[in-house]
Amino acid sequence: MTTSHSYITSYIKKRSDFLSTMEQFAKEQHIPIMELVAIESLLQFLRMQQPKSILEVGSAIGYSAIRMALTLPEAVLTTIEKDESRCQLAAGYLEQAELTSRIQLLHGDALEIDIDSFSQTTYDALFIDAAKGQYQRFFDKYSPLVPSGGVIYCDNMLMHGFTEIDIQEVPRRKRTMVRNLQQFTKWLMNHEQYETTFLPIGDGITISIKR
């Protein structure tokens, strides 16, 4: 962590005991949730956008969905998680947070799940934070649910720095994933239907406004 990063995090408001417990659990169990600066930045973007409905691909234990719901008390969310154990954990946390009436948690592969099961037919915001090598496919499947003026947020676009280095320096087991993410990034940044900005926040976030 750089000094500047530490300086920034020192000004982030203390979270509730409930959220802090979730953060600690995720850290201890090596479950990936958004970095603190990244989630705080995403929430600020959402405050500016004020979406009434959000679709999240990749729930993990429900941390980001809960943070979004608490930040936007008028919004409803649908969130999808493939891993059964994490989905069960997320369900428990949603119960504790008393947000089950506003957050629809779906267990399944986001590439296979039936869109007809969603609580909404369109979503003002789409947040993609799942398998990095599948971002293009997630985007292709779910971007049609976002209307003109809606926003698509993608996290982990730097993939811990792997997308910034020569592919031969990337561990062999990660090369296909990194190539896919690099190709998706290039495609997205040049897509005429979206106005996209790539920000070096956390592990890299892209923000795409649909024209």
UniProtKB/TrEMBL annotation:
Transmembrane segments: none annotated. It is an enzyme of class 2 (transferase). Keywords: Magnesium, Metal-binding, Methyltransferase, S-adenosyl-L-methionine, Transferase, tRNA processing. InterPro entries: Cation-dep_OMT (IPR050362), SAM-dependent_MTases_sf (IPR029063), SAM_O-MeTrfase (IPR002935), TrmR_methyltr (IPR043675). Pfam families: Methyltransf_3. The keyword Methyltransferase applies. Its EC number is 2.1.1.-. GO terms for biological process: methylation. One of its GO terms (molecular function) is methyltransferase activity. It comes from the Bacteria. S-adenosyl-L-methionine binds at M34, S64, E81, D109, A110, D129. It catalyses: 5-hydroxyuridine(34) in tRNA + S-adenosyl-L-methionine = 5-methoxyuridine(34) in tRNA + S-adenosyl-L-homocysteine + H(+). Mg(2+) binds at D129, D155, N156. Belongs to the class I-like SAM-binding methyltransferase superfamily. Cation-dependent O-methyltransferase family. Homodimer. Catalyzes the methylation of 5-hydroxyuridine (ho5U) to form 5-methoxyuridine (mo5U) at position 34 in tRNAs. This is tRNA 5-hydroxyuridine methyltransferase.
